[in-house]
Amino acid sequence: MKLHKISLAVLVGLGTLASCDSKLDVSNPNQQTTATFGNDVESLEENVIAAYNHIRMEGTYARVGYTLDVCRGDEVWNSSQVWYMPFDDLNAPFTDEIGQWSWRDWYYTINVCNYTISRCGEDNSVLSETMKRIKGQMLFLRGLAYYNLTGYYQNPILITDYNTYSTLDGLYGTNSTYDEAWDQVEKDFAEAMTLLPSRDAGGQWAKGRATNGAAAGYYARALMMRHKYTEALAVLKDIIGGKYGHYELMKNYGDNFREGSAYENNAESLFEIQYLDYGSQGTDDEWTPVNTSPNATQGHAVESNFGPGDMGGWADLSASPWLYQLFKAEKTTAGSLDPRLYWTIGTYEPEWDGFEYGNVCYTVPMTADAPVVTNNNNGGLPIAKNTNLRTGLYDKVVTGLHCGINLRMMRYSDVLLRAAECENEVNGPTQQAIDWINQVRNRAGLADLKLADFSGNADKLFEQIANVERPKEFGCEFGRGFDLVRWGFFYSADRLQQIKEHGTFRRTNDKTRVKEPVSYSEVGVDPELKSSYDSWIQGHEFFPIYQGTLNDNPNLEGNSANKSESNANSLYGPVHPVVNL
Q1: What is residue 534's DSSP assignment?
Q2: What crossing angle do the helices spanning 431-443 and 412-427 adopt, rounded to 10°?
Q3: 363 SS3 class
Q4: 237 in Cβ contact with 419 (< 8 Å)
Q5: Which residue numbers delimit the RagB/SusD domain (predicted)?
Q6: DSSP conformational letter for 301
Q7: For the whole prediction, is pTM greater than 0.85?
Q8: Of the candidates 548, 545, 509, 504, which has an alpha carbon nearest to the alpha carbon of residue 526?
Q9: Residue-wise pLDDT tens digits, 264-300
Q10: DSSP 447-498
Q11: Considering only Cβ atoms within 10 Å of each terminal Cβ, which end of the chain, N or C, has fewer?
């Protein structure tokens, strides 16, 4: 027995000596570095999730990153007359820190994307299907980041190679040109199209993720920012033809603006931002990317900005009287109001008593004698879209990052109307362009447009698309500011006059007057009237790069908004003249 114990001790000793010579290599999962993380599919999938999480932050789409473009458009004005004021007035100073939040948060997204892409290699042909999906999603999200940065800040820094981070100098880049930035956006979306599956092929995996249809849609959008209509038309036709999966218009327009699995990620959605339904989230609002609460909310605060003060909202943004009157100007073939009005603007209308959830504002009945305004001091038509004002779910706004309605960033109706616009630009008014528009109108119950009414007049059909069809379909959604920039409306005298008219509103605490038509000609005569675009300063169709960012990076320069310089010579193609319809 002694010999046995001695032998056992020797074996244990030898094992101990051997273990000293060949130590177990274990990485501390709480102290991972770029050298130890991202070497396998599982960890790269974690990066994919992190990148999607970053597009749901304050400066991306959870609040400011979404609403800055909304109030830049002519369909919305600032009813609080405080928050967002310089962005609504298009004269934001470069010292306003709010304007920096989108810059900050989109670069967080880019950082995660760059790292993941660096782990995927250059040769896509050797990638597994899983790795193709990983790389494709990262390319899409990086393209989305630069799409927003360029549309907001004009000349962002292009950082696409993770190796540049090896020295601090690599982080202190210089401005790109506007063209260089859009070239990169196009490149990322085009490559993502080749790597990602369609929504059909992706199946359950594709729900909530970028697909080749999403990449194709955004690729067409990017092309249109520089008037590459022929190229964009080819891509849009492919989407309509089903090359990137099946898309169709939902029969009920309102299904695009409700929460819940029955409505979200539906057949009309090319891409949307995923938020958990209210009640299934955490409790802690996380406004910046550096917060790491395990109990973080998973919603957005767009509803808080739109929500009426009487219902607990922050009462910041309201629909313009122009948009309301545009809806009222055309009835359906059945003689009813356009149902899109119900889901866009929270007004009382006698016809709504028997429609959907009726004349309610957060389940509270509205009457002709008791309408709801956005701001109790300054009035305003409440925005219903992407809120629960019309859903019948809640009796008040749950403020903060709590709204669970997914933000549909690109819908199939946008594909149809963009295809019609491109067709008109390339071939003039055609029956095909009219047919695409009529698909969107028919869903709303409106009468068909006739080619004969636009024959030979591309300017007139453009007017119909830009200032009738698109505002009624996408009113108070992200994207109108991008449209005004790409169309050149700020640098054409008649177009600038037109958006001044559209952007005229009445500041009043008289609830009975908020729906009245207003006229720009009365601004300065009627003290309650104002137009957002009267205060526009040349170059401020973009947002200035924050001065603190410029101070931190000596290689970075301000853009046209920092310098208040005209972009009149930077337009791509002629501006369509105003045409009376």
Answers
A1: G
A2: 160
A3: coil
A4: yes
A5: 268-559
A6: S
A7: yes
A8: 504
A9: 999 999 999 999 998 899 999 999 888 889 999 999 9
A10: PPP-GGGTTT-HHHHHHHIIIIIHHHHHTTSTTHHHHHHHHTGGGSHHHHHH
A11: N
